[in-house]
Amino acid sequence: MGEFFKGLFQGQKPRAPKPSPDDDFADFDSAPSPTPIYNPLSGTSSAPTAASFPEHETLPTGSARIPYTKWYRVWERTSPRDFYVEATIIPFIFVLAVLHIWGRRKNKRKAGVWIAAHAPSLDREFASVGFDRRKGLADYGGDFSGLLKEKTAQEYVTYATGRQNVAFVDLKVKLFKRYNPLTLVLEMVLSFLFETIRSPKEVMEATIYAFDGKEKDLVPVKSRAELDTKDSRFKGLPSSGYDACVWAIVHKEQMKGLRDERYDVSLTATKDHKNLPQWASVMSESAEVTEALLTKDLVEAVEKAGDAFEYLIVTDQPVDKPSKLDEAAPRKRVILSLRLPSSTKPSAYESTVPIFDYFLKMPDTLVATAHFRGEVTRKIRATREEETKKLKKADDDEKAEERRLEAEKKKKEIRDTRLKGLSADEQRKFLEREREKGQKKQEKKMSRKA
After folding, report:
1. What distance in Å separates the CA atoms of residue 334 and residue 42, rounded to the nearest whole number?
2. How far apart are CA 173 and CA 159, in angstroms?
3. Which of 31, 194, 233, 238 has the CA that lies 20 to 30 A from 365?
4. How confident is the model at residue 43 (pLDDT cuts 50, 70, 90)?
5. What contacts 24+ positions apart, CB below 8 Å, involve 443-446?
6. How far is the C-alpha of 419 from the C-alpha of 336, rounded, in Å?
7. pLDDT confidence band for 232 (50 / 70 / 90)
8. Which of 65-69, 221-225, 419-423 shows the lowest mean pLDDT across its residues?
9. Separation of alpha carbons 108 and 148, rounded Å
10. Minimal CA–CA distance to 206: which of 311, 78, 341, 136?
11. What is the pLDDT of residue 326?
């Protein structure tokens, strides 16, 4: 009531005016229209004056007012200093692009020179060379780069098949990452600082997969008629099998790294041999294996290869240590690794061609001479059986653990189902009995330990 009389005698407060919907644009009504800047090329408009801009507007210290021009007249509102960052980045990108293109071409040319030097050897030993079986060596017209397939910019591969005692041979040419010089330099620096990181190198690695008496399973059948006559086709052929073993000739610089990287070589013992040069050693499971496989022609080929030779391995074991029985299945192979020379001339490979030729013919040597005395064979077999027992025990332990977990899971499901059907008082008693049983088991364990 007091407020009513107070308002009656003192007068009412003035009401605030209602906001107009156009009040938000009041600031723009008083703003001056933009005045075009003078264009010396066209001669239109006029130079800006102080009256063209509001007096109350101030600019930050050291900044220049951006003149008003047409949107496409970029040159009138920019200067060269606005592109200093681009002027730095674009040449850098251009140099990287040029190095990338040069590196890929250099690698391709070097791989082409390698295959040109070794293609005649492959053609003499195998009926089919390369991934195109319809082409012979004469169809390439002297340019054998078509025999190679680019797997990556630093790795080229090829393939050959069609030979007695050999299922097929895989060949890989691994080169420097010339197309990525930053990565190449980083790998070299890291390999220099840390012994665990191997320095990048250019190598050729070839792997022969032997038939080992399994021609029927490995040779493909093209027609129904060939399938019907399959047994008769292979009946008269001499056996391509030989006794399993792990044997190698290794350059001493590669020995430590090879033992760390390959499981099969770790099964051997290392010994120097009087017929080999000082920089090479033999890794073998038995001295009789060395006497059978280390021939005079092989020693001469190794000596001629020199520092380009890395290793020659005869094996039936996997490269990585098997963790399951299936991975331990023997697979007989012959592996050769050679360093590539820095030169891109075909004559640079003259020293490695003899060891490559011997490598391609080595399955014949194995079939002819790799048949050892029963004592040596039993010793080699015992090593493999010991490793197989370890894998079998680990596999049995793993399966027993799975069965135990499955039994515990089923037991828990039965317990939960039974517990759900009880009343609250019965559940409490059930849980108390379980706790008492657990305590008794724990006490028995403690007493046994004591």
Report:
1. 82
2. 12
3. 233
4. very low
5. none
6. 67
7. low
8. 65-69
9. 9
10. 311
11. 82
For residue 30, pLDDT over 80 is answered with: no
Amino acid symbol at 352: T
**At 143, which amino acid appears?**
D
Which of these, 99, 61, 88, lies nearest to 183 by C-alpha position?
Answer: 99
pLDDT digits 0-9 by tens, 337-380 = 999 998 888 889 999 999 999 999 999 999 999 999 989 999 99
State the Cα–Cα distance between residues 338 and 249, nearest whole angstrom.
12
Question: b vs e for 408-441, b when ≥16 Cβ sit within 10 Å of the residue's Cβ?
Answer: eeeeeeeeeeeeeeeeeeeeeeeeeeeeeeeeee
Region 435-441 average pLDDT: 81
CB of 399 within 8 A of CB of 322? no
Give the distance, in angstroms, between the CA of residue 323 and the centroid of all CA atoms in the same chain.
Answer: 21
The H-assigned helical ranges of 153-295 are: 181-193, 215-218, 224-228, 230-235, 255-261, 287-293
